[in-house]
Each structure stands twice: as structure tokens, then as C-alpha cells.
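Loading example: each entry is read as two labelled lines plus one structure line.
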Amino acid sequence: NAGVTQTPKFQVLKTGQSMTLQCAQDMNHEYMSWYRQDPGMGLRLIHYSVGAGITDQGEVPNGYNVSRSTTEDFPLRLLSAAPSQTSVYFCASSYSSGGYYGYTFGSGTRLTVV
Amino acid sequence: TQLLEQSPQFLSIQEGENLTVYCNSSSVFSSLQWYRQEPGEGPVLLVTVVTGGEVKKLKRLTFQFGDARKDSSLHITAAQPGDTGLYLCAGKTGTASKLTFGTGTRLQVTL
């Protein structure tokens, strides 16, 4: 099925470890974003991209790195995991047309840092 | 940082009741979206409102965008257990990659 695919679904890391959360979309969307979701705080934007080769920081970028070498893929790297990065991470892709835009979210990665 | 406050945070009602969820901000948004999220899944888009004062209906759900484009409401008529979930509003000011999400309203509808 078309959509946004995130892997892994669950992950446990030790403090200081690094890892990459994968995100791929097959809808040829220009825009892609990473959000984290914590209880009582909604979703907060980590990094976003408006096209291949172009990325920018969102609201909470510290400790995370991204790159966008292709339209389809937008991986999120945790450089040195900390307990404060325990969260559920969502990748989203979106299009924009005539003032309207549509977001499609992946099913999330639940990350625990111990 | 633009904030979107949603109220109430939690709502537990019985099947058949009506409810309204509010989404308020001090910032102006060019458009606003409402999402529903179920446990273990990502948010799913319900509606986008673009014009101040705009009202959109989706079956038993009615969405309104405030005249000043700073607030929005979601009204559900005759709630059903299938409406249970986390409802999120999200405002857009810049590119389609940047949405500001509200704090969420968790709705539980029981028989």
C-alpha cells in the first residue's frame, strides 16, 4: 500500500548509543518532516525538508540529524541517545497544491533510552 | 514558538451525546487541520480549513475556523464508540512541512 513506512516499530537504546530511524514514502511528496510525540505535548517538529538536498531545523532539533538525498527517503539520526529522547517518533510526508496540503503520517517508532 | 491550546484535555462521554473540542492560539494561521489518532498509529487527517469563518462538515463532525484565523472548533453530534481517539489540531504558517500541533484532546465514547 502507498504511504509512509517507518522502521523500526520499537527500539531500546542505551544512553550514548547512536541509531538511525528510517522513513520512506512512495507518493512523490516534496515535503517530509519528523515529529516527536510526548504525553500532554502534542507533536513537536524536529527537522523538515522541502525537497531532496534541502533540510532545516524545527522546534526541537538538538541531538538529531537528518539528510535528504532522495525524494523518497528521510532518515533521522540520533547522535548520542539520552533518556530525554525517549518518545514516539513520527515521520510525515506532504504535498502542497493551490493552498491546500495533505499530510500522511507513518505509524511511528517507539524509542526508549535507558 | 507558536502555541495551540486544546480544551478539554480529556473527555469521557456516553454514546449519543454531543461534544465540542476547542483549539485556540494567539497566532494567526494561514490554515488549520484536524487529525484523529488511534493508539499505536500515526495521526490521520480529517479536514483542512483555510478561510476565516469557514465551516466544514464531515458526516457527524462539524469543523469551524475562527474569523481571525486564530482558533477552531470541532463539534461531534451523537458520538459513537468509533469516535474514540486523540484529536489534534494543527496550524500552518509557513511551508507545508511545518505544522504546529495542539496539545490534543483525548475522547472516549462508551456504550
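Chain A has a mean pLDDT of 93.
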